[in-house]
Amino acid sequence: MEPITTALFSACRTGDLPLLTEILEQSVDLEVNDEKGFTPLIIATYNHQVQAAKLLLEAGANVNGQDAGGNTALMGVAFKGYHDAAALLISYDADLDLQHGNGGTALMFAAMFGRNDLVKLLLDNGANARIKDSRGLDVYDLAMQQGNKEAMSMLEQAG
Fold it and tell me: Where does residue 92 fall: left (phi above 0), alpha (psi -120 to 50 degrees), or beta otherwise?
């Protein structure tokens, strides 16, 4: 990996905004993947570096960029429970219904891991609760498997 790319990923991981700003001024490829297949935006959001993510999005990073497994930044923050990062990604028109390699969505991650504030945020912004994963399960099925009664209730209310 080129030194500037290594520095880009480091700045995204740690939230080094001055370094990130300097790198972005050099027109670096924002869709580059690290050795694990992650994009800079996925790294920033997964490490809860919301301001770094905002800088990347303002510079033109693909809000729907996927890692090697098809996961997006929104899926990662739904798993981690970062409401502020999810709201930022949604404000940049993240596709709420993208599916990763096994058919999972951000809403499914939120429900499976008890991130019920994110379940609500995603539903309020129009996430499709009827999508099925590769096993034929929808988000309600997954919430039920996890005993997530709060998510089940929200899903029932959403119809």
Answer: alpha
CA distance 5 to 83: 28
Residue 101 CB partners (closer than 8 Å, separation 6+): 69, 70
Roughly what angle, to the nearest 10 degrees, separates helices 17-24 and 50-58?
Answer: 10
Do residues 85 and 50 touch, judged by C-beta distance below 8 A?
Answer: yes
Please compute Rg for the chain using Cα positions.
16
Mean pLDDT of 131-138: 97
Query: How many Å apart are CA 67 and CA 37, to the nearest integer?
Result: 5
Residue 132: how many CA atoms within 13 Å on its side-chain side?
A: 4
Q: According to the model, what pLDDT value does residue 1 have?
A: 73
Token pair recorded at residue 108: 């499914």
CA pair distance 63, 56, nearest whole angstrom = 9
148 in Cβ contact with 111 (< 8 Å): yes
The predicted-structure confidence for 32-73, as pLDDT tens digits, reads as follows 999 889 999 999 999 999 999 999 999 999 999 999 999 999
